[in-house]
Each structure stands twice: as structure tokens, then as C-alpha cells.
Amino acid sequence: MKILFLCTSYNSLSQSVYLALSTQHDITIEYALSEQVMMDAVELAKPDLILCPFLTCKVPQQIYTKILTLIIHPGPPGDAGPSALDWVLMGDTGEIEDADHVLQVLDHDEMQPGRSHWGVTVLQAIEQFDAGPVWAFEQFPINIDQPELTKSDVYRGPVTQAAIKASISAIDRIQRAMTKTPSSATPSAKLAGGFSIKHNPGVVSPNLEASPSYRLLSVSTLATFQGGKTHHRPLLPAKKRDFDPSRHTAQQISRRIRCGDSQPGVLSKIFGQALYIYGGIIEEGFGIARPIAPPGSIVAARNEAVCIATCDGRGIWITNVRRPKRSVDTALWPKVPAVMGLMELGILDAMKAQRLQWAASRDWSLSSTSTFQEVWIDFVPGANGKTAYLYFNFYNGAMTTKQCSQLIEAMDYILASSTPASPVKALVMMGGDYFSNGIALNVIEADVSPAASGWMNINRIDDVVQYLLQEMPKRDILTIAGIRGNAAAGGVAFAAACDIVVAGANVVLNPAYRSMGLHGSEYHSLSYFGRCGHDVGTQLLREMLPMSTFQALACGLVDHVVPGQGPALDAQIRAHVTSIVDSAPTNILTWKRGIDLSPEVLATARVTELAEMSKDFFSLRAERFHTRRFAFIRKCKSSRTPFRFAKHRRFPVGEEGKLGVGELDEEERDDFDDVKSLEWFLEKEREKMWSSHVKSLPRKISMGGSTLGESDRKDSPLDSDFGSEHGNEKNGGIRIKVPEKENPVVEAKDTTPIFSCYYTPPLEVSSA
């Protein structure tokens, strides 16, 4: 079938559903930017079916009354509302009908076990939210007190897999319903607004009848929902998740934080001023290792996280913070590591942060009690030596400069542990909930000099990859990437540098850098081209499309795909690694055989890649990275759907039904890389300076800087000083004169957050 996706954004769930369905169906995508945009997309795409995998607004009535429109809701039948997962993870069991009463009970009563199951429903769009006929639902077990389990983890894991199963089943049921001929006694469907539609056999229409059993029985088990009663629950704002460490236990606080991670967080004044906080990992060993302190006090720091004391003698780790968006702020603030954010605000100083540092383990082993631990090593003995499994669970998969240094320290420890009597035969990079998404864009965006921060970050992640390409091979240590979670950009190249890549079947890979305005590094020019050949390697970098691990297997980017998720996937990867390590060395085939990876070649590749990256950070070409990073981090609405997703807009159908010329996104054009020609960048600078929203440059939006006034624009040529982001005259940067532009017509940049319902300034932070 021809299927149109309507999405608020093309997020991880949308990508997973797309990859699962696109093998059998023709799919095109449109961002739901407005009602008119959605209606235009329907007119252009002429779909048989519309599917909304991630949608935070209503579908126009003119659409769902003409074309069968399915909504994927992250809750079982009967559940409704925009905060389905938030309520579940906070502890709502469904036993209480009134939402305010639920909050009172969760705030004052003793902790109760959460729901045992949750689900995903694929339902038909009607006037009322989440209330249409159900075409499929799937359920899964859930333990809301599983250590470190966040809303984001649940969404990317069991919710996504349930959504795929339910979507496939719903489409199959719709196709079967198409062939049924309604009896003469069957009345026409009455939809909101008085629309009346009759179903024609063989045609997908909103009048198709969903069996009542679809609402009652889950797809896989054919069982009724096992998780209790369901209700319509309202939006759960960040401020209603706040906690009091003097009376709430560590477990209660953990639930409140994890249920809003990574969106929207908990709005709390635990540090004195209102901040969104994230993390919520319980510290069990706190009472033994740290002195007793008043609840709410910062009692420890580990890397960039801080631990606060709780009333039950334990602690809670806060990993990240974000300043609230005030009414005077143009856009959202970046989300940054807790120590960094608290130091910027003067809440924590460098000396105290250093004094509070508390290592999780001296030998890099996994702690036996619940605690915050980003990196750990598990040595497993084997017949010919030991295998080192290196886990690194960094927030949202982003690798800061300091975290890259952590990984290098861990790899140095592994190298030191390899002795003639007990050699390390293999290093397995296991990643975390995400494998890796490359450099840390939030930290770069928050820095006073994003260019310098990005430059340090990319150099340090290159150091990590160099260990895989040079240091480990020198000691005959086989390198394996065990990809258990999604990976993007530098994270994919990081994995590809290993001798062998083993990936989970449900993982989504995004190997390109260009959509963020970056050339990329991490030795991708060796690994992508060495694994896939020049043509396919170039295609991976230029297409900017998500790919499944099966697609990656077919082109050589991945070597083995194994089933499972969570602990089952971990076990599958370990079993596969064991079979590889125990086999004869001559039987281990890697992409590196026959390829020159001498130190000279590695150095040349690194210098070549970093030369391009320097343009992305410091030259006029840096405009493309700085603006894209700003929009991504501050969650600004897109102005349109990229043509690479919206096939119906890339190839518009002409009056005679012939395909027009394919439209290209900026990132797909060859001149996107051309730093010698200044025309494109000068045009971007003009647009930025003439835009009605150009009260400040991206960095100045956070810093409160000023810009040129109207008289400056009219009376003199524009002095475009790229400042600390692009280099300036004092630092040997570039200063250019931009000719005056007559009668500029510029579309203002919309800095409204995608999730505006979460980030509307609350009263207590609406002023400076």
C-alpha cells in the first residue's frame, strides 16, 4: 500500500516502524507542521492509508474522514492522554480514577508496586483523542523500578517493538477487511461533523469495521490486557513531578525523575533555583562510603554527575540539568551534565566538585550495588585468553571530551591487564542503551566557544577510535563492537572501526553526518569505504537515511546480526563473541584484511578528515553546523519536511502525471561542502541578519547579546563578525563585508519548541 506518515518529528520509533513496514509498502513522510501542511501532503501523496507513529497534534477532520488514519498510542486500549508512559513510570496503577487523587496518593502514601504490564495501541483517528476504533494492540511486561529504566528506555525498547508488531498486524487486518463486502443491513459510518461514508470492497476507507476482539486481545499472546484498569490521564507537567528529599524516599524520587527522562525532566528547586533535572539513579552504597548529610545536600560527585542525600539514608544521582525557558528566552536552553550546569550557575565550585569526587570502582568492575556508573569492564576467561567486555552507558549516547578520556583510561587498564600468562584476546565495545551518537552536541552548544569545544571533542573521540585501529592490533587484540542500542554519525563510524561488528536485529543506524552540517571524522573514510566500497560508502554519507542492521549487513557495515533486546540481546552477543574468539585465527575474517592501516595511513586519514572538520567549526562553512546544532539542541520546529523523507514533495506529479525534477535538500547538494565559494554562506548570513528573529545569534540567545539596529542596516555595509563561534580578527579569524541587500524577504526562524506543552514557562520561572 501507499502509506503516508504524519509525524511531529521523525524520531526513533518512527524510524523503526518505517524500516519494518517499508519492505512491503511504499512510505513517504510529512512533518505535521500545520493543518494546511498535512492536507497538502495528503493531496500530493494520495495515500491509501495514513499512519501517525509520533504525533502530538490533532489530524484535521478533512483528512481522517476521507482516508483511514491510524494513530500509534504508547498505551493499551482505554488509556488516553499525552503522558501515558510518564504516569505508568511514576507509579500510577490504574486503581484510582481521578488523576489529582493519584498524585496525592503518590505524594503522601507508602510506595506500592507499579503495573506489571503496559502496551501500545494502533487506533483509528476520530474527533476525540485516543478514542477511535482499535485495529491492534500489543502488551509487554514492565518493572518500573528496574534500575536506571527511564521513559526514553521504555519508548525506544519495548514500546517501539510493540508498535512495530501492532502496526504490522493492523495493516494486515485492514487489508483483509478490504476484501469483505458489507451486507445491505450495514449502516454507513457516521463520523464527527455529520460525515457519512460507505465502504466499497477492495478500497481502504474510514468505514472499514474493526473487530471488537482487536481491542480486547493483544497481537502476540491473544490475551486481555494484564496491567490493570486504564483511564484518560491529562498532561503530567514537569513541576508536578517535583519531590521533597526530606520526606520522599530514594525510590519515590527515582520514579519521579525517570518518568520524565529525557522529556521533559523534573522541574525542581532542589539546588536553590528552578531547573529541569534528569537521571534518578539510586545510590545504595551511600551510607557506608559517604558521611551523613541533610537530605537534599550534594554529598558526592562522579565524573559530571552529582549525588544528593535522601531521607532514607540513600542517595539519588542527578546526571544532567537544563535551565527553564523563561518568557524572555527565545529558545530552550541546552541540557548539560550536572556538574557543568551547576558550576555555570555558581551553585557548585570547582574545588567542591573535585573534593566530592567518588570513584565507582578502582578496578573498573561493575558495582555490586545500585549506583551511577557510566563505564565498567567485565573480564571473561576463555580457552586461549580472556575477553574484555567494555560497557559505556553515556547519556543519550553522546560522548563528551571527558567521557572519551574515560574510555581511553579504561582501554589503558585493559592493555595493562594483558600479560603473557593471562593475555587479553578480544576487546568487545558494548556501549549502553545507545551504542554511541558521537560528539556531545548539548555540551558544545552550551560552551562559550562551541567551535573550540567541538574541536576538542572530535579530536578526543578520534583518539578513542585510534586505539581500536592501532593500539589493540599492535598487541594482537581482536576488536568487536557489540551494538545493543541505536547509533548515529560518529557512533556508527566508531563501531565500524572494529574488526567485527555484531548488532542487535532491532537496532537503527544513522551513519551520515551531513544532516548536522558536519563532514565527520572517526576514521570513517577508512572504515566505511573499507567495509562497503567507495560507492556504497559515499551513499551512506550522502543519503542521510536510517538503516536497519539487516541493511547494514547486506552492505558490509555490520558483520553479524543477532536477535533479542535487553538482557537477552546481551547474552546473544556474548555467545556470538565466544564462538568467534574460540575459532581459529585463520577463520576470523575482517574488513581489514588486505587494507593498509599502517600508522602513516591512519595519520593521513585523520588529518584529512579533521581538515574538513576544521572548516565545519572555524571557517565560513561553520554556519551550517552552528545553525543546525542550535535547532536540534533547542528543539526548534522545522520549517519543512526534508525532501529525502517527503518523497511526495521531492517528485511532485505534474498535470500530465509525469514526475517532475527531483528536489534536493541543502545537505544533498554538492555545493553544501564548498567553502571556497562564499555566495551560499553570505546569503545565509544576510538572511540571519535581516530575519525578524535576529535579535541575537544562536550563542547570544543564551547570553543576552545585542545586534545591529535598523540605522546600522540602512547606513552602512554589514560587518559580519563571526565571533567566538567562527573565529575573529584577534584570533586570526575571518572578517567580511556583506553588501547591503535591498528589500529582503526572509522567512523568520521558528524557535518554538516541538514539545511546547512541556516547556511553557511556569509562573515561578516566567520572569528573570
Automatic annotation (TrEMBL):
Region entry Disordered: which residue ranges?
701-747
SUPFAM superfamilies associated with the record: ClpP/crotonase, FMT C-terminal domain-like, Formyltransferase
Q: What keywords are assigned to this protein?
A: Virulence
Named in its record, the pathway it takes part in is: Mycotoxin biosynthesis
Quick one: signal sequence residues? none
One GO term in the molecular function aspect is: catalytic activity
Segments crossing the lipid bilayer? none
Q: Where is the composition biased (Basic and acidic residues)?
A: 710-729, 737-747
Where does the Formyl transferase C-terminal domain start and stop, copy by copy? 248-326
Q: Does the record's keyword annotation contain Protein transport? A: no
Is Cell membrane among the key words of this record?
A: no
Reading the lineage from the top rank, the first entry is: Eukaryota
Q: Which PANTHER family match?
A: HYDROGENASE MATURATION FACTOR HOXX
Protein name in the entry = Formyl transferase C-terminal domain-containing protein
